[in-house]
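A quick word before the example. In earlier lectures we treated sequence and structure as two separate objects. From today on, think of them as two lines of the same record. Here is Leucine-binding protein domain-containing protein written that way.
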Amino acid sequence: MQKRQFITMLSGTMLAGVSGLTRAQGAGTPGVTDSEIKIGSTLPLSGPAAGYGAVGKAMSAWFDLVNAEGGVNGRKLKLVLADDGYSPPKSLEQVRRLVEREQVAFIAGQIGSSTGLAARSYLNNAKVPQLFVTSGAATWLDDAAKFPWSMGWLPLYTDEGRILARHILRTRPNAKIAMFYQNDDAGKDVLRGLKEVLAAGGKPLVREESHEVSDPTVDSQIVSMQASGADVLVAWGSPKATLQSLRKAHDIGWRPTIYINPSASSVPMVLTPVGLDKVKGVMSAAFLKDPGDPTWKDDSGLQAWHAFMDKYNKGAAKEYLAVLGACIGQTVVQLLKQCGKDLSRENIMRQSLRLDMELPMMLPGLRIKTSDARPHPIPDMRIQQFDGTSWKVMSS
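And the structure line, produced from the sequence above:
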């Protein structure tokens, strides 16, 4: 498949109506020259959360594809990735370096809630856009008026918790529910949304346990939740912690109904190592297609995805986190195309609130949509269940 064919397939409506834009001037915007737009991002390229680095690598690969096609309005995109080890203090340090030394135009696709929030005040004071943070922390929306230069990207974690709770109450009204969550803003927001809906339905949690991303094992938490008598488990954590929790629950003979984090729902990376027969029936709220899921084997978007990855990010085609990174990259490209001649930071931020687009690797019926009233890109998710071979979308 030729480059032009698969960029068109992957981009879809994202490219419509922008091909005739003249070259932007960008005068006075750091990181913008006649030939280049420099963008920065922080992510863990080392340490226990280094797996999340796949997001930045895929975003960079998407920019490589766009650059091969001529860039955006005649300018090539340069992504500067800075390793923060998933440490908030180091993330702030790296963001300062990207802005003050590297002179990036804006920050995009940072990994993590706590790390993104560590840099939020600095970036807002400097009036540097902080866009599409890979976080669904409620504060990105709730405090948008206070921090107008910042925007998350993932569906809100509180919304995810509410969606899971509504599904549990509808399908298991007599359930005893326990939650195992990552001890950060993300995990706590999912917990908050879950408890809010469960409390309204008169259904408190029977046990809640947390874990740190750096924990070597989560076995003790799983044993504790089994002892609570729970028959529904919401296991919201990193891919490593999710894999361990699924394996431990099976090994000790505990068979609750299990809901897991969408970022940890990869068939080849998480479910297969546990054993597909052992995770049949597991559920998740999702918004992206899993590239390792045979459900999508005949999907045109997935076929184009493999063509893109084979050329620009070989070896990572089945990684769910790579899909996340490429989708953020596509969103950034659309944003810059909408900026037209005006690449000022003010217009970059303004256009981030005017997005309305479908992405080929999002689940059918979902789309990116922002506005002044809701400055958060992804408003919905779908419940899906693993049938032992692939994920089947059920309902929202």
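Notice the following. The domain at 3-155+295-378 is CATH 3.40.50.2300 (Rossmann fold). We will return to this example when we discuss secondary structure assignment.
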